[in-house]
Amino acid sequence: MKDIQWYPGHMTKAKRMMQENIKLIDIVIELVDARIPLSSKNPDIDELSKNKFRMILLNKVDLADSKVTSQWEKYFKEKGYYVYCLDSRKNTGMKTITDMIQEACKEKIERDRKRGILNRPIRAMVVGIPNVGKSTFINSYAKKACAKVGNKPGVTKGKQWIRISKNVELLDTPGILWPKFEDQEIGKKLAYIGSINDEIIERTELAYNFIEFLKNNYCNVLNERYNINEELSSYDILSEIAIVRKCLVKGNEPDINKASILLFDDFRSGKLGSISLEIPE
Prior knowledge:
- By secondary structure, the chain is an alpha/beta fold.
- The protein has 11 helices and 8 strands.
- Helix 3 (66-78) links the parallel strand 2 and strand 3 (82-86).
């Protein structure tokens, strides 16, 4: 499979914008996808967020394997992050996030108090790679549609300040990937969840890789969803999915490309079940 690379010009601009705004910020809240918490964590953000309080939100927990998510929660807590697991499409748990922000920034609040600065809201920057659910989280947290929402990368283009309460203000930023994936496995996982635009990757080859992963880690998932024999090769399995789901071209031949789209749609919407793509070392 050829190397996956994707770093459009607007991401360079977004990174520069984050560098300029970081001095205004008390805490950085990073959303990661609970199915790939490490692969969806941008290493550039660690560099940008030095000397800031840090929170990790494991989003889309409803789509991830709950046993594995518990391991990730422990992993990040041990690294010194405040951690919370959520499904940002639901409004539950938002008060807990506010309490965590207050707890994380208590030293800063105390410093302000000693200097006679009272009730200044904590300023949080919300960051994350494309398609990780950042805008959905902000809208749930603010209880109104402040951020544009889309299920494709690159919907948030500019920065915007959002007042959550008298205690918390959020700065939304565009989703940024890092310029180069040193590890192609990371690129693949990002493509599986849809953080890399589907149009620029070899979708069928990606589907073969994904089928191999499922066979090795979540056997019987494909059989349960499509009623097919998982002992077949990845190529034959994808052909079978095409036939079962009537993805056919002229002459009733299986449409492999269409079957690949269907497979990833089923995975991303949770129809294959709760699946995590990586576990902590």
